[in-house]
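hey
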């Protein structure tokens, strides 16, 4: 039987399950824990913009990170306030942004209905998918040992995954590999948005460090990394072709299959020193 959950946890729930072991049903039900997955609607200055399925924790971070990654705001100073409004069927996150950002958002309006693991659902035009991202300016080298240390430390900090086995994690480490922040979510894009938002809200110079994710490296993950100004993205699994293309264009060093002491470099290998 799993230990009781701390009362402070709002990201998972207890359910009753029936086990099969060695192909046979065990008698009776027992408790287990699952990650919460909740519709989260983002509103900017009172206008609905996106609805995602996400784990209902660190939603202020999520709102800021999503806004930065999507180019809705230029920096944390463009956010005037964030309110969370629980509803019977989900949570509405109301974000108040500057007038200039609101005008820019209205000029490139899009409707977006997200589902778990989806980062581009509802984008109306191809240019919106491939919107330009400024190349990362930091050319400084990064130690491969630091990247390895960051990934190991992130895995050790996946508290929600340890309880439920159902979440992705995104973490940020300094250039020496020491992890400062980790965020988890049922969606890998959401986890990275939460992390980007947390970095911005805490005033961390994200560009000086390393991002590592417990997932594959899709195009959107590289796009969010570049938007945050981070020069290295390390992933446990494989990248996609479009992710590699963007990483090359955006001056992001992209590592995949980072497992044990091994990895595959897909872009800008000159930045990694061994």
């Amino acid at each position: 039987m799993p230990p009781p959950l701390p009362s402070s946890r709002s990201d998972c729930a207890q359910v009753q399950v029936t086990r099969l072991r060695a192909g046979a049903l065990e008698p009776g039900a027992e408790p287990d824990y699952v990650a919460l997955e909740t519709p989260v609607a983002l509103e900017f200055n009172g206008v609905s913009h996106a609805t995602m399925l996400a784990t209902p924790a660190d939603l202020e971070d999520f709102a800021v990170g999503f806004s930065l990654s999507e180019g809705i705001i230029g920096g944390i100073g463009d956010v005037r306030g964030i309110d969370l409004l629980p509803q019977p069927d989900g949570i509405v996150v109301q974000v108040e942004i500057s007038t200039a950002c609101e005008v820019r958002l209205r000029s490139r309006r899009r409707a977006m209905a997200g589902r778990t693991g989806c980062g581009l659902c509802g984008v109306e035009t191809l240019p919106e998918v491939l919107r330009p991202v400024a190349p990362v300016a930091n050319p400084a080298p990064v130690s491969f040992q630091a990247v390895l240390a960051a990934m190991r430390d992130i895995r050790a900090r996946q508290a929600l995954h340890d309880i439920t086995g159902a979440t992705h994690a995104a973490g940020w480490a300094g250039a020496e590999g020491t992890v400062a922040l980790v965020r988890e979510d049922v969606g890998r894009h959401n986890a990275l948005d939460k992390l980007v938002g947390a970095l911005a809200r805490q005033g961390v110079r994200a560009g000086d460090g390393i991002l590592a994710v417990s997932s594959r490296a899709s195009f959107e993950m590289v796009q969010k990394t570049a938007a945050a100004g981070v020069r290295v993205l390390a992933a446990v699994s494989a990248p996609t072709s479009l992710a590699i293309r963007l990483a090359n264009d955006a001056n992001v060093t992209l590592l995949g299959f980072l497992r044990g002491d091994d990895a595959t470099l897909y872009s800008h290998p000159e930045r990694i020193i061994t």
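Residues 47 and 94 are 9 Å apart (CA to CA). The chain is about 25% helix and 30% strand.
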